[in-house]
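Lecture 7 notes: from sequence to structure.

We start with a single chain of 262 residues. Read the sequence below before looking at the structure.
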Amino acid sequence: MSLMSYLEIGEKAARAAGAVLREKLGKAWVREKKRADLLTEADLLAQETIKTILLDAFPTHRFVGEETGEEYVAKNNEFCWIVDPLDGTTNFAHGFPMFGPSIALARGEEILCGVIYNPMFEECFTAEAGKGAFLNGESIRTSKITTLGEALVSISFPTTTTENSPDLLAFLRIIPITQAIRRTGSTAINLAYVAAGRFDSMICYGAHAWDVAAGILMVREAGGVVTAPNGTPFSLNSPRTLASSNEMLHQATLKQIHEPEF
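Now the structure, written as tokens:
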């Protein structure tokens, strides 16, 4: 099976899940898994839609989704689909149009292909290893911004943020010297936007593999740099993420978020 075939099925699954999300917008039940961490009927329906399409096509593959109740653990030579059926659940519950499925296929730590789809904007971001990153079939590249003073930076906060959350401390250190900070409420979309040159850096300390796997590949394939927020190599087994448009900006971001507190 070629990477293109994997990607084609992944995109089919993402678009089918997107159709479920559009149909359920404003109609789905909502409950809290824990404080501020929402689950909706649409999460479950979208995940089942994705799982059915992927495993019908690839019955020997493993499947790990946000709602399966297990974390991704990299195992050599095992193909595994890593899926967030609805990244941006709180946005969805409030009708804020920044949400959608994120789907990646990995073999151990190697991410083979990925899809992030925003059904409200009809934007489908795709990537496959060694083949580049695309938005609706058109090639995308990271931005050429190299200084934080010119950068539009995205940051993700955990569902329950405290005064000692590393995401918040990074935000406080970096906001005085960036051009601006944005928070979309979707980690997957943040990464897709770095790949497309809309954001210049993205910081996330509280990610799971399903939040970032597809977007990590997109950023890399679009020319960007990805590590953990402390500068160590990124790992799907511990998926804290710092993604930047280029190495110069990446190093500037690393230095700033690890400066001593004010």
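The first strand starts at residue 30 and ends at 34. Keep this in mind for problem set 3.
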